[in-house]
Specification:
Layout: H1 6-9, H2 12-27, E1 34-36, E2 39-41, H3 45-70, H4 84-110, H5 113-116, H6 124-136, H7 151-176, H8 184-214, H9 224-227, E3 229-231, H10 232-238, H11 240-265
Antiparallel strand pairs: 1-2, 2-3
Length: 266
Amino acid sequence: MTETILFNHGALLIFIMPFLGFLMSGLSRRQDPEIRGDRILRHDIPARVAHWSHAIGTVLLLISGFLLGTRITPSFVGGGEGSVPWFNVHYVFACLFLFGTFYWVGNTIISAYRLHEHLPTKRAFVYTINHYGSLMGFKRFTYPREEKYFESERMAFLAAVGIAAAMAITGIIKTLARWVSIPGEVMLVANWAHDLCAVLMLLFLLAHVFFAVVIPSSWKTFPSMLHGTVPFDHAKEEHAAWVEELEKKQANAKSAGDQAGTQKGA
């Protein structure tokens, strides 16, 4: 019996997942960061959904793509039935990757200021070199008054977006080739670019996990991607400008609420 290759028979879902990501972002209720006693809400639920759906999809795409590309086990050898299930596994993970990516894009369009806080400033390159140099122990660096994201994180954000976009575009081209005729030269470039992006994404992922999870300086911040909050004192020390902005906003909101209450009582 001939097995179904989802990239052939279910390719439409590859194009539906971006739409679904947009749709779900529009239905999601965002919550701005706020001070909650001795903790600060850093990542709301939609932010965590976008992060983990994209991250898990990326990791599993890399694993399944590597095994398909290298065919290091008997089940991946040849183009027969043994390889079909793994093409389908890769397809499922591609759907998850696209959903997470476009869910984030939709959220960013709805709340445009969230994109601004990710974008690097003119001082980003120098700060990035000093930041990672100090983390690795071969530079002495006095940290500036950082906002919600370090300048180094903003530089990494650009790299992640660029690589993910290239992976998605070349992957979609490879999927389209199963439906329509695409010139061989275009497919050659798409195949090589897709593989190169996979290598770059793997290197980025390893660096991201090391600096965001493994080293001790990340241990108080990383859990916010699990439960959403960070300790107030830690945020005040590492992201002083961001905390002061939150304090100012909440003070203004309280003042406005008090004035409204006074006018209503009068």
